[in-house]
UniProtKB/TrEMBL annotation:
<dbReference type="Pfam" id="PF10114">
    <property type="entry name" value="PocR"/>
</dbReference>
<dbReference type="Pfam" id="PF07883">
    <property type="entry name" value="Cupin_2"/>
</dbReference>
<dbReference type="InterPro" id="IPR011051">
    <property type="entry name" value="RmlC_Cupin_sf"/>
</dbReference>
<keyword id="KW-0808">Transferase</keyword>
<dbReference type="InterPro" id="IPR013096">
    <property type="entry name" value="Cupin_2"/>
</dbReference>
<feature type="domain" description="Signal transduction histidine kinase internal region">
    <location>
        <begin position="319"/>
        <end position="398"/>
    </location>
</feature>
<dbReference type="InterPro" id="IPR010559">
    <property type="entry name" value="Sig_transdc_His_kin_internal"/>
</dbReference>
<dbReference type="InterPro" id="IPR018771">
    <property type="entry name" value="PocR_dom"/>
</dbReference>
<dbReference type="InterPro" id="IPR050640">
    <property type="entry name" value="Bact_2-comp_sensor_kinase"/>
</dbReference>
<dbReference type="InterPro" id="IPR036890">
    <property type="entry name" value="HATPase_C_sf"/>
</dbReference>
<dbReference type="Pfam" id="PF06580">
    <property type="entry name" value="His_kinase"/>
</dbReference>
<feature type="domain" description="Cupin type-2">
    <location>
        <begin position="48"/>
        <end position="115"/>
    </location>
</feature>
<dbReference type="GO" id="GO:0004673">
    <property type="term" value="F:protein histidine kinase activity"/>
</dbReference>
<protein>
    <submittedName>
        <fullName>Sensor histidine kinase YpdA</fullName>
        <ecNumber>2.7.13.3</ecNumber>
    </submittedName>
</protein>
<dbReference type="InterPro" id="IPR014710">
    <property type="entry name" value="RmlC-like_jellyroll"/>
</dbReference>
<feature type="domain" description="PocR">
    <location>
        <begin position="142"/>
        <end position="285"/>
    </location>
</feature>
<keyword id="KW-0418">Kinase</keyword>
């Protein structure tokens, strides 16, 4: 009679049988539906119930079932609700319902089963840059607890491993036959070491060579497999036909096999569809966790940046205070210098008059600009006054060449940047040097950068000073070797105005002399 019913279904529905499953209570045959574009289809099967047989109570976790009577009367129970399913009658088994059936007649009965998974809605897609390490995220979001709740929900063993095959869940939750298989390294499933398996990027229902069935769903982010979520680890057959190695750790492989939970194909199929979305949701949860971690890092860095700016502001405030303290009635000073220069000119002391005018002009330009940016062209106006004073003071001691590209004249720099570098060359570089000093001031553009160089042929800066400049970071680092030469002050002011968009180096040249170089990213 079974064959007659099966043939009748095939002929009437014009569907092929794709798989079957045999139970103590009967048989079930799954039919091939035509594929569509939905991606999620119901499963259709024909169930044959043996005379006087009954199916044990089970819960419909994650799927609903519509049943249609084909032959005879099969009695179904759903949460104590009785459904007498005769030929042509339709019944409904709800998701989460407790279901069992019985054939109380002396002949086989048959019914059509249509099962559709109840799939949770996925989380919204979240973009993510950078790498995610599954082990770190598992700890951060307590992934082990989430997996345990999932196991309880689907009533199956659930595993979580990273891409290298390391377990992130308790391996002892696996059935005895799987634990022995892992110990002996005899299996062919994804739970084995990465070198013994092939990574795959799609979900699949896997039947191992020892007859254990499981769903294996990968975690994929940015095209990279991070690990695998597994579920099931039960048997779908009442017969043990697989070969077991002689050295297998389980004393009785057959006994261990029959200790496995029996998995109904409908249940496994519905869990497979649910698991794919659970995997995607967990991946998005990991991404959210990593984004929160990145945001925390950003907040910490922001606080540190604000602290650094506060220290810089304090330093500038102190510098301004010292500068203001050094101004003793500047208007009186200007008037006095102008009186001296006028008197010197009247007495025929032209050099003294020029020196006094230069000093007056230098002070006038300096006052009020300690905290501002100036153009290179403006800085050069008082650099020339300063050089005139120094060349008058040290005649024939050094010569100066200034080479500034026109495109650099409007570039802004902190006040007295070039001035301090020139002063260091004259007072320190040319000190105790027999030959005439040569000082070259250059400013030019290269690619997207503006470059300022002060080059002298003096005694050369000490190497430890160059090293100290390279280690400057704008924090509390204050090397004693930089005190008294204004170098750190230049760095701090460049840092204040240009942030990370500059480099500042001072080096002793092999041929002799010193090169101070500032590169501004414009």
């Amino acid at each position: 009679m079974t064959i007659d019913i099966i043939n009748k279904i095939k002929d009437s529905l014009q569907l092929e049988i794709v798989s079957d499953q045999h139970f103590d209570w009967g048989e079930q045959y799954w039919l091939q539906l035509e594929p569509d574009s939905s991606g999620i289809q119901p499963t259709v099967s024909v169930a044959i119930v043996y005379p006087g047989a009954w199916q044990q109570s089970h819960v419909h976790t994650g799927f609903i079932e519509i049943i249609i009577g084909l032959d005879g009367v099969t009695t179904h129970y759903c949460n104590e609700r009785e459904i007498r399913l005769g030929e042509g009658k339709i019944g409904y088994i709800s998701e989460g319902g407790k279901h069992w059936l019985a054939n109380r007649s002396s002949k086989p009965t048959a019914f059509l089963s249509i099962v559709h998974s109840v799939i949770p809605k996925p989380l919204k897609e979240v973009s993510m840059s950078g790498d995610i390490v599954l082990t770190e995220v598992a700890k951060a979001i307590n992934l082990d607890s989430i997996v345990e709740k999932l196991s309880q929900s689907v009533q199956m063993t659930v595993t979580l491993i990273d891409e290298a095959g390391n377990f992130l869940t308790d391996k002892d939750n696996l059935p005895e036959i799987c634990q022995s298989c892992l110990d002996e390294k005899s299996g062919d499933c994804v739970l084995h070491e990465a070198t013994e398996r092939q990574a795959y990027a799609g979900q699949r229902i896997f039947h191992c060579k020892f007859g254990v069935s499981a769903i294996q769903s990968p975690f994929i982010v940015n095209g990279k497999v991070l690990g695998y979520l597994g579920c099931g680890y039960g048997r779908m057959s009442t017969n043990l036909t697989q070969l077991v190695p002689e050295n297998f750790a389980v004393n009785s492989a057959q006994e261990a096999y029959f200790k496995l939970n029996f998995i109904h194909r409908n249940h496994l199929n519905s869990v497979a569809e649910t698991l794919s979305l659970v995997s995607a949701s967990l991946v998005q949860l990991m991404i959210d966790s990593m984004k929160e971690k990145e945001l925390s890092y950003y907040r910490i860095n922001l606080v540190q940046e604000r602290e650094m700016q506060a220290r810089l502001h304090h330093s500038l405030s102190q510098a301004r205070l010292k500068f203001l303290e050094s101004q003793v009635n500047p208007h009186f000073l200007f008037n006095t210098l102008n009186t001296i220069s006028q008197q010197a000119e009247m007495d025929g002391a032209t050099t003294l008059a020029s020196l006094t005018y230069s000093l007056s002009n230098l002070l006038r330009l300096s006052l009020g600009k300690a905290e501002s940016l100036v153009t290179i062209e403006e800085e050069l106006s008082y650099v020339r006054d300063y050089l005139f004073i120094q060349q008058t003071r040290f005649p024939d001691k050094f010569a100066v060449a200034i080479d500034i590209e026109p495109a650099m004249l409007e570039v802004k720099i902190p006040f007295m940047t070039i001035m301090v570098l020139i002063e260091n060359s004259i007072l320190h570089g040319f000190k105790d040097v027999a030959q005439q000093g040569q000082l070259l001031v250059r400013a030019y553009k290269e690619d997207n950068c503006g470059i300022i160089e002060v080059h002298d042929n003096g005694c050369g800066i000490a190497k430890h000073i160059g090293a100290a400049v390279r280690e400057l970071s704008g924090d509390d680092y204050d090397p004693p070797s930089l005190k008294g030469i204004g170098i750190k002050n230049i760095f701090l002011r460049l840092k204040h105005y240009y942030g990370d968009m500059f480099t500042f180096t001072i080096e002793r040249l092999e041929a002799g002399g010193t090169l101070a170089r500032i590169v501004l990213r414009l």
